[in-house]
Known about the structure:
Layout: E1 11-14, H1 23-30, H2 36-44, E2 48-50, E3 67-70, E4 85-89, E5 93-98, H3 115-123, E6 129-130, E7 139-145, H4 151-159, E8 164-172, E9 181-189, E10 196-199, E11 205-214, E12 218-225, H5 232-240, H6 256-259, E13 270-278, E14 285-289
Parallel strand pairs: 7-13
Antiparallel strand pairs: 1-3, 2-3, 4-5, 5-7, 6-7, 8-12, 8-13, 9-10, 9-11, 11-12, 13-14
Amino acid sequence: MTLRSPDARPSTLHLPAGPWSTVLDCLCARFPAIDRATWLDRMNRGRVLTAEGVALAPDAPHREGLRIHYFREVPDETPIPFEARVLHVDAHLVVADKPHFLPVQPSGHYVQQTLLARLTARLGNPDLVPLHRIDRLTAGLVLFSADPATRGQYQALFRERRMRKVYEAIAPALPQLDFPLTRRTRLVEGDPFILMTETDGEPNSETQVEVLERGERYWRYRLYPVTGKRHQLRVHMAALGAGLLNDPLYPILQPRESREQDDYSRPLQLLARELTFDDPLTGERRHFESGLTLGI
């Protein structure tokens, strides 16, 4: 019997080599945080499938390299009380204006409370795939591919840096610096792994920074990320001496309990404001702008 989940997208795993006799044994070893009873329940409900979509039984034999699909489930997933606005839909692209706190795609504690899951349900298109990502705490524009046949052409816009991205941020004033300025540094994974950090070596990240508005304590900045490293804008601004307002990671890592408890009254002051590119299918210049705002 072939089963499909109507409300989620599967994750994929190629089974590793190991001493296990069944797929179930392998999954229990591969994901120790999920107990055996949970995996048994998922398999009995058809939530673990072969690549062909056939439900795997608990006694299905393990085979190295076997590709399986499984559906992540988060019990008692906390609802996120903000909705994205869809700015554009055509046969190839979807552009959404994402609110703060909403993840782009499933990760960690979020499966259904994601932009991808909500758009898939709203538009009825299971082929939606984000072409880029912004942090859960960041608001603003996210571009999705709606058609697998043309996806690669739009992905190339990001890979080849033919997508012009503009962000806005609110952060402490930097009167001692001359603007506009460019920060080029080498970013690597930090300790703990959730952080990125600057280190010596050949630069692999670049951000251009301008000042849009000067307040007494905080300024509004326009940021142009030339590269797209994880947390790049947040790290670069913190390194300049202006960590973004309400950032729980930079320049000071907040305690885990406070990071995991969202305070909707204090969103990270970072907004993906504009996306501009030449459409690879038509050559048309396309420009999208977020309708969201940041406070100063």
